[in-house]
Automatic annotation (TrEMBL):
It is a multi-pass membrane protein. This is General substrate transporter. Keywords: Glycoprotein, Membrane, Transmembrane, Transmembrane helix, Transport. Belongs to the major facilitator superfamily. Sugar transporter (TC 2.A.1.1) family. InterPro entries: MFS_dom, MFS_sugar_transport-like, MFS_Sugar_Transporters, MFS_trans_sf, Sugar/inositol_transpt, Sugar_transporter_CS. The chain crosses the membrane at residues 36-54, 88-109, 116-138, 144-164, 176-195, 215-238, 323-346, 358-382, 389-410, 422-448, 492-510. Gene3D superfamilies: MFS general substrate transporter like domains (1.20.1250.20). Residues 41-514 form the Major facilitator superfamily (MFS) profile domain. It comes from Cercophora scortea.
Amino acid sequence: MGGGGDSGTAAFYNAALTRREALMGKSGPAALVKNFRVFCIALFACIGGVLYGYNQGMFSGVLAMPAFQEHMGDYDPLDPQADQSKKGWLTAILELGAWVGTLLSGFLAEVLSRKYGVLVACVVFMLGVVIQAVSVTAGANAILAGRFITGMGVGSLAMIIPIYNSEVAPPEVRGALVALQQLAICFGIMISFWIDYGTNYIGGTTLATQSNAAWLVPICLQLAPAMILFVGMIFMPFSPRWLVHHDREEEARKVLSTLRGLSANHELVELEFLEIKAQSLFEKRTIAEMFPHLREPTAWNTFKLQWVAIAKLFQTRAMFKRVIVATVVMFFQQWTGINAVLYYAPTIFKQLGLDDNVTSLLATGVVGVVMFLATIPAVLYVDRVGRKPVLIIGAIGMATCHIIIAIIVAKNITQWSTQPAAGWAAVCMVWLFVVHFGYSWGPCAWIIVAEIWPLSTRPYGVALGASSNWMNNFIVGQVTPDMLKSITYGTYLLFGILTYLGAAFIYFVVPETKRLTLEEMDVIFGSEGTAQADFERMEEINSEIGLTQILRDNTGASGSDVGAGPLPEKRQVSEKGENGEDA
């Protein structure tokens, strides 16, 4: 493309975005009220996040229960000085299952739909919980198998639900609705900690008196929200973007109209529908040209296409930048140490001087409360403040907390009994660390991963980012017990240094993406360099579906100089509508 085309489309994109923002109104709490229907749908879908958070938080308390430790033997030894490797494996096997589930979920989300993919994930999740429940007679291996299968369900839900929420949401609240996933996770973590605190008293709190029901009850309670999500999701709408991509255009129009609370012929509904259709046609024709043997939309072709689509992510600079952003952001999210805290909070608090199991569980419950409360502002204001400043400030805050904890532990590790104030100071730093994570890297990392991908590669792109999350989650869960035992305060130094590096990565590499439509995201990642063939393909599609004619009718401009002047009052398209998608 020549320089004139680039400047024209860039000017048009800026004018389109300004006009769209004027029509949409402001972001923030008022926008959630305006889009209350979408908000309620996304809120219900986020029960999947509650399941993930509950499973994550619940197991940290279960690991500290004497009855469970006796049941699991070497996998959760009663002696804190014993080998902790199997304990790491017991915890981390859920993340390994989630990694597998994430890789399979791209295929499910594309073939079955986002909606039905959630239903399948619920069934897998419930199967894993049932297997864990029978471990009281089947033995420790049933817990391992059940956690792996439950992890597959959790990984699928964690990948599909952010896609679903981002695709039903209008741009002005998209970030807030995707952030609901993290709020739901935090809510699940919070209630799980307090349920553990309560069930820990079943039969008594000592090894001699505690009943197996103390750990069985919190495990089995997961079935209730999973069943509610399964039944309720049957009545939820399909993603309009998925409908368009699968040639169900009239249904997509109706869903968009209902979701937006506008008439089917309203300019925003029409604009959004045509942009989605243009993007879908472009992706289909690009795939058909590059991989003609996979052009038929059969399930087997789609299964093979997911690996082709993943390979495609590495083939152009613009797409590879998305890969770097998604995978490295998730790497740094996990190496903040958040799941080390969530999985082993009672163990950590005991190491910080809270020797009594009941007291450590109580301190763990506070972790859940402060994380949940800290996440609420992100849901309300992330679309107004933006992603980058929140991520940078959160990373600096978390890293500083780690360094302070490391200093306190280094000075007092052998004298907690005579320095209780130092122990509580370290505990408060853990709580403050969780606050910084709650409003920043918790929701915003998932927002970025969900919103940066083009339509046909979105399930696979999110799967790639989520797989980075789960694999690093698995590694952190596996190594943390041994790190806490062998290098003690060095654990916090490591997490602190890596989190400072995460702040630098966000500042220098990650672009700001707030208030852009999912289709307009292409411009941020370098679509100005799209190959001429792709430009011509998109121009042909725009003419075919009427976008070019609408623009000409309203501006009186020719196709070549469209975008050089101001936007028409009635219609506007994104830059991508004239410029095209990545090669």
